[in-house]
Amino acid sequence: MKHLGKIALSLLAASTWWLAFIQQAEPEQKVSKPSHKVDYFLKDFDALSMTLTGTPKQRIISEHMQHYIDDDSTELIKPKMTMYSPGKPDLNIHSDTGYVSSDGELLLLNGVVHIKRSALKNNAALEIDTHNLRVQLPNDFAETDEFVTIKSGGNTIQGNGLRAHFREPINIKILNNVDGHHEIK
Q1: What backbone phi and psi angles, to 5 degrees, belong to 6?
Q2: Radius of gyration in angstroms for the set of CA atoms belonging to the chain, rounded to a whole number
Q3: How many angstroms separate the CA atoms of 146 and 132, rounded?
Q4: Which of 53, 118, 126, 177 is deepest in the core (most CB within 10 A)?
Q5: What mean pLDDT is predicted for residues 21-35?
Q6: Do the Cβ atoms of 74 and 62 come closer than 8 Å?
Q7: Separation of CA 42 from chain center
Q8: Is residue 118 within 8 Å of 95, Cβ to Cβ?
Q9: Where do the DSSP E strands lie in the chain?
Q10: Strands 91-100, 38-50: parallel, antiparallel or unpaired by DSSP?
Q11: Which of helix, strand or coil describes residue 16?
Q12: For the segment 56-93, what is each residue's pLDDT rounded down to a tens digit?
């Protein structure tokens, strides 16, 4: 009988071990995401977008462009953007680097940003200096939370934050701590 108890106990231990073994979860299979790798690049990148009537709307050129496969984003080195308005001077925007979202609707201009528009009839030339500008490409809207300086003729306005619609009529708003110097002729 002693041996029968030991055998029963051994069978119980073996069956417990066997049940635990067959119940073991499959080892997790790691799903790897593609890493942030460049799938193509271009030197002297140049992209022109047109209006529905076939006139130029915006142009983005860059010394170097690289596209990433994982998030479909694009990075730009020394981007220069031009916004066209028929019968008006072009608006030119330059920055150190840039980023274009996967849907092509958002352009982040990073580092020092310089915006310039030549004079027009009764309007003096316009220059805007800031950092880190976000541009919504479909509606020509730009914004930043950084310090901004706007110069036009003998007038200078400075402050923090900018919201600007560059589609005619141009509307520029500085958000906080605004200080201006105006020359009266």
Answers
A1: -65, -40
A2: 30
A3: 7
A4: 126
A5: 65
A6: no
A7: 18
A8: no
A9: 38-50, 56-68, 74-77, 80-83, 91-100, 106-117, 126-136, 141-152, 155-165, 171-181
A10: unpaired
A11: helix
A12: 999 999 999 999 888 888 999 999 999 998 888 899 99
Report CA dihedral (94, 120, 128, 83) to the nearest 10 degrees.
-40
Single-letter amino acid code for the residue at 160? N
Which residue reads 């635990």 in tokens?
20
Backbone φ and ψ of 15, nearest 5° = -70, -35
Q: Which two tokens stand for residue 183?
A: 């020359």
- CA–CA dist 79, 83 (Å, integer): 13
pLDDT tier for residue 28 given thresholds of 50, 70 and 90: low
pTM for this model (two decimals): 0.76
> Is the pLDDT confidence value at 153 over 90?
no
- Rounded Cα–Cα distance for residues 52 and 69 (Å): 30
Residues in a beta bridge with 114:
94, 129
Q: Is 79 helix (H, G, I), strand (E, B) or coil?
A: coil
Whether residue 101 contacts residue 109, with contact meaning beta carbons closer than 8 Å, is answered with: no
Question: Token pair of 38, please?
Answer: 């460049």
Tell me the C-alpha distance between 26 and 95, whole Å.
Answer: 52
Measured CA to CA, the distance from residue 53 to residue 64 in angstroms comes to 30
Q: Assess contact for 98 and 110: CB atoms under 8 A.
A: yes
